[in-house]
């Protein structure tokens, strides 16, 4: 089938910086997502539309089409108690958190006593990036997946929500 809104798409991907240095890759452990929900960077989502298994694309994207621009307002000070496991909080800890309406990628950049400084800018913000994407599978999303807004794996690692 071809990719359209509300399909579950699995891809292999490689992300390099403008100089070609490898930053991130799926390393065979594919990324699955519901198409049309903004999981892929804006500059790639449209390219997926109507494509099928085997489709490959290489594309260089500026920050506005990739992970956006740095916003200093997204450097936040929070209390250690707000973390689920306050004793595990350390500089470099990366996690995802809901900020405003967005799920954002966050990194702890400083700790002073009970105060934790978190940078909620994506680590690839401001970067021009080279993307290589290959579509592995395309299937229809289940009703449950659409309701939850995310893909359910085959290993049942789905916590109750
Ligand atoms: Zn779910």
Can you walk me through this structure?
The chain has 161 residues and is mainly beta. Helices cover 8% and strands 40% of the residues. The protein has 2 helices and 9 strands. The chain has helices at residues 42-48, 143-148, and strands at 7-17, 22-25, 31-34, 56-61, 75-79, 94-99, 102-112, 115-119, 129-140. Strands 1, 2, 3, 4 and 9 form a 5-stranded antiparallel sheet that branches. A 4-stranded antiparallel sheet has the order 5-8-7-6, with no helix packed on it. A hairpin with a 4-residue loop joins strand 1 and strand 2 (22-25). The model has no long low-confidence stretch (mean pLDDT 91). It binds zinc ion (ZN). Residues 148, 150, 152, 158 line the site of zinc ion.
TL;DR?
With 161 residues, the protein is mainly beta. 8% of the residues lie in helices and 40% in strands. The longest helix has 7 residues, at 42-48.
Question: What attributes does this structure have?
Answer:
binds zinc ion; 9 strands; 40% strand; mainly beta; 161 residues; five-stranded antiparallel beta sheet; four-stranded antiparallel beta sheet
């Amino acid at each position: 089938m071809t990719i359209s809104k509300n399909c579950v798409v699995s891809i292999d991907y490689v992300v390099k910086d403008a100089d070609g240095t490898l930053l991130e890759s799926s390393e065979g452990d594919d990324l699955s997502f519901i198409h049309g929900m903004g999981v892929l960077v804006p500059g790639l989502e449209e390219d997926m539309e109507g494509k099928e298994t085997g489709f490959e694309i290489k594309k260089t994207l500026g920050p506005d089409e990739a992970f956006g621009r740095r916003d200093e307002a997204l450097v936040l000070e929070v209390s250690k108690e707000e973390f689920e496991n306050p004793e595990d909080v350390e500089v470099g800890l990366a996690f995802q958190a809901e900020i405003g309406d967005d799920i954002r990628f966050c990194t702890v950049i400083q700790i002073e006593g009970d105060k934790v400084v978190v940078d909620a800018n994506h680590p690839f913000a401001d970067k021009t990036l080279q993307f290589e994407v290959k579509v592995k599978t395309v299937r229809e999303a289940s009703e449950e997946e659409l309701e939850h807004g995310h893909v359910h794996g085959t290993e049942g690692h789905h916590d109750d929500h």
